[in-house]
Amino acid sequence: MTKYPHFKQDFTASLVVFLVALPLCVGVAVASGVPAELGLVTGIVGGIVTGLMRGSSLQVSGPAAGLTVLVYEAVREFGLPALGVVVLATGLLQIGMGALKVGRYFRAISVSVVEGMLAGIGLVLIAGQLYSIFATEAPESGIGKVVGLPGAFVDALGSTTSLASLALGAGTVAVLVLWKHLPRRVRVVPGPLAAVGLAVLAVLVLDLRVATVEVSGLVESVQPPSLDTFTDLAGLSLAGTIVAFTLIASAESLFSAAAVDRMHDGPRTSYDKELLAQGAGNTVCGLLGALPMTAVIVRSAANVQAGARTKASRVLHGVWLLLFAALLPAALAHIPVPALAGVLVHAGAKLIPVRTVVGLWRDQRGEVLILAATAVSIVSVSMFEGVLVGVALSVVKTAWDASQVKLEVVDKGAGPVQAHLSGNATFLRLPKILDSLEALPDDRPVEVDLSGLHHLDHACRTALESWAQRHSSAETEPVRVTSA
């Protein structure tokens, strides 16, 4: 064992991660509108393929709740056969970005945009999965899901079948919320597995009539993309979906890596190598027609907390998923859909950064507005447009914060009025500058000193020249402008 000094810790951690990942893999697949087995395929690839590669040694990859909404929309719009093409293209783009060493630049993305993205995903995920708990069909649009919830809840109260489904889903959420308060010896079993296991037991004992997972077989579910589906890549809508998959999957994985690094004292993440690893995994998933993968913070945290020391734990967790999918696939048919929906409602709630919002509201209210605007845009429009709105607002806020300009007017009562500009003069501060200059007396000569400016953009320079011409047209001496 001297060759593998940490085998015992990694072996134990791999079992814990496997038990956490199993219900999440299945739940994400069902919520994404694809066969449950494809969630297991992505988990297997994330463990064995991505797990063997270098990057972040302890974070675990697989199908993520954060991509559920995007996958569901893609499958609904383009069909399941096109999913493999989208995921394959995503993986190849990630490999290209990793080779070009783009990974490190993802750290420059505003945290408010990422948190807003996760909050928007969480809200849409919760709203969509509540319909599964109510045993009714969910509206297609994100805003429709939110608006229709009260009516769906009232309808569920009037149906015996829906009440059973509602009770099972609510019970699953309750178990997950309360699990962390139970004695440590009970919490040896991961919360998601315990919640789903208790739901299965309740269905069998009480003979509840609720929907269960449909099983079609692992081999039958794996459908590599045909050559015909690659012709769809020429379409702008599919290309936009691929870009959205790539940016969101990459950002989520690399931000997860940063969070995992704070949990342990081992080797730090190499962001470019991690992006290559994620790309390799998504390429394989695309070739198998499976779900896209990202690094998943829930599984990664479980891995670290279980005492994992090397990447062997995540590779072994992929092996356990493979053995389960090969030997016990029929067991999936006993899992109630409302229980999986409850697991995802709980996961979606964790995506909403309540503590972050409270902290930011005290010091950075502008960041809270960006976060909220990103989340609302994702819910009301779509994932891709919502992220673009957040990035655009973040850029505008950064430009606004950087455009700090000060105008100091010195009027000694006689002689010229002196105006000293300092800081960064950009078009964002132009109204303030012009208001102050136009308030200067028309009957006195003016000297404008620009030597204190670090930056003067074209819009401000043009506006200053125009103002100087207007002011000089009065019966006074021409405005004197001095620069550094």
UniProtKB/TrEMBL annotation:
Coiled coil: none annotated. It is a multi-pass membrane protein. Its main location: membrane. InterPro entries: SLC26A/SulP_dom (IPR011547), SLC26A/SulP_fam (IPR001902). This is SulP family inorganic anion transporter. It comes from the Bacteria. Keywords: Membrane, Transmembrane, Transmembrane helix. GO terms for cellular component: membrane. The keyword Zinc does not apply. Residues 7-374 form the SLC26A/SulP transporter domain. The keyword Kinase does not apply. It comes from Streptomyces tabacisoli. The chain crosses the membrane at residues 78-100, 112-136, 156-179, 191-213, 233-260, 319-349, 369-396. One of its GO terms (biological process) is transmembrane transport. It is found in: Membrane.
